Amino acid sequence: MKRKERISNYYRNNMEKGKQDYEKLGWESKEAQDKRFDILISETEMEGKTLLDVGCGLGNLLEYIEEKGINVDYHGVDLLEEMIENAKKKNLKGHFYCLDLFKNNPFPDKSFDIIYASGIFNLNLENNREFLRQALQVFLRLSREYVVFNLLHYKSPNREDKYFYFNPAEVKEMLEKDFGIYDAKIREQYLNNDFTVIIRQKA
């Protein structure tokens, strides 16, 4: 099954009426979802910056940013039309696009100050390491300042076959070997199943 089909099937099965946004997106709780967003807020200077949220889902990151009173030029992309349609209905101060960034990237190089991706590498796609490598090539090309993404931790206490888990040390090695990035910051222990990688682009 292709990546897009696998991802679409997973999220469409979650899009039942009556579910909270975090449930539709496959997160364990709103608090956990917000904790992931909080890492982005705490590790980057966001005020007045241009942000691309890859796999934006229902626009929850922008909701979180607006609640914090931070002004950003927000752009969100997602594979699923249902996600984008629902995000647009919230009348948030951002731009939402339904597209596959890795197949049809419409943005010029260095279009955004910050690239953020939360959860897009979680589903077991059977080629997750290669997908991460390919995604980073796109992210680093589009970003001027930061690339921030989270991954499921291989030490997660309740692992499931449908998800893919990364070893932070292996991710760090890949960044060094394949991209020449030696100073990426890795944040752990804010949740028991997650870690975040923060890459600061050099001027």
Structure notes:
This protein is an alpha/beta fold. The chain is built from seven helices and seven strands; from the N terminus they run H-H-H-E-H-E-H-E-E-H-E-H-E-E. The chain has a seven-stranded mixed β-sheet. It is globular, with a radius of gyration of 16 Å. The termini are far apart. The model has no long low-confidence stretch (mean pLDDT 87).
Give a brief rundown of this model.
The chain is of the alpha/beta class. The chain has helices at residues 3-14, 21-24, 30-43, 60-67, 81-88, 128-142, 168-179; strands spanning 50-54, 73-78, 94-98, 112-117, 143-152, 185-187, 194-200.
What characteristics describe this protein?
seven-stranded mixed β-sheet; 7 helices; alpha/beta; 203 residues
If helices are DSSP runs of H or I spanning 4 or more residues, what is the number of helices? 7
Average pLDDT level: 87
The oligomeric status of these chains comes to: single chain
- The strand order across the widest sheet is 3-2-1-4-5-7-6
State the total count of DSSP E strands. 7
Q: Tell me the β content.
A: 15-25%
Radius of gyration: 16 Å
Biggest pleated sheet: 7 strands, mixed
Helix content: 25-40%
Q: Measure the end-to-end span.
A: 40 Å
Protein structure class: alpha/beta
Rough outline: globular
Order of helices and strands: HHHEHEHEEHEHEE
Write the layout of secondary structure elements.
Elements: H1 3-14, H2 21-24, H3 30-43, E1 50-54, H4 60-67, E2 73-78, H5 81-88, E3 94-98, E4 112-117, H6 128-142, E5 143-152, H7 168-179, E6 185-187, E7 194-200
Parallel strand pairs: 1-2, 1-4, 2-3, 4-5
Antiparallel strand pairs: 5-7, 6-7
